Amino acid sequence: MIKTAFRFWSREKTPVIRQALKLLVAYNLTQHVTMVEGIPDEEGFLGRIHDVNSRYRGKIVAPVMINFQVKVEMAKMWRGLQKDVLEELSHLYSSIYTKEKLKHWPTIFMVASILLSVWEEMQFDCHYRIPVRAASGELHESQLRSEQDYAVVNKFCSDMESTPVGVIVGLFSAISQKLPALIEWDSRKHHHLLGSNPAVCDALTEVRETVTRHEPYLRTRAKATFDREDFDSLSNKFTSKLVIRAN
User: What is the pTM of this model?
Assistant: First the structure.
């Protein structure tokens, strides 16, 4: 869906889709380790990665305080972008019930898909950052698992799924009633419903092919649970709800 949204933006240049894509990039950069460049070997700078299996071998990790400051500023950026995207998405939903009708439906679909993808990452990250219990079952100071941390994370995830995710998916389902299911989209028959826009038709054809190919998988994702050993364990958990409800 991210590739489809990017290709759609490349043709339409819709500002809010660009903002949503920037949100996705900004959030992922916030979670990435900060590197520094241009330090001569003779400096003996600590933090160089020597692991032969690392894709970052030879790179230098930034000092803790520099990394922290970069993360703080990046977090401000993605939070600001998320606020702007949510406000614009609200306006777009409202426009559906005015004279503009389905004019903005494709934009809503693309923005909602990107936003839900970011929220899937947030859920994985907040789980992943809770320290794990030692293999022996004993609790070491560096691996202490806080029940309070779990309670906070579980509440955060539950609140996200019941309110913002539920609202976005529910509203999208409501505004999609007069359109064919994504899996049934045929540009030759249905192009007039969305203004006969070639970019929209091509994007929805792409979505139809993706949904058709992965439908059994998508229908299982709503019940996905966190797995520390699988970085894709929560992938498409929310996006699948959007796509399946639209079906």
Answer: 0.87
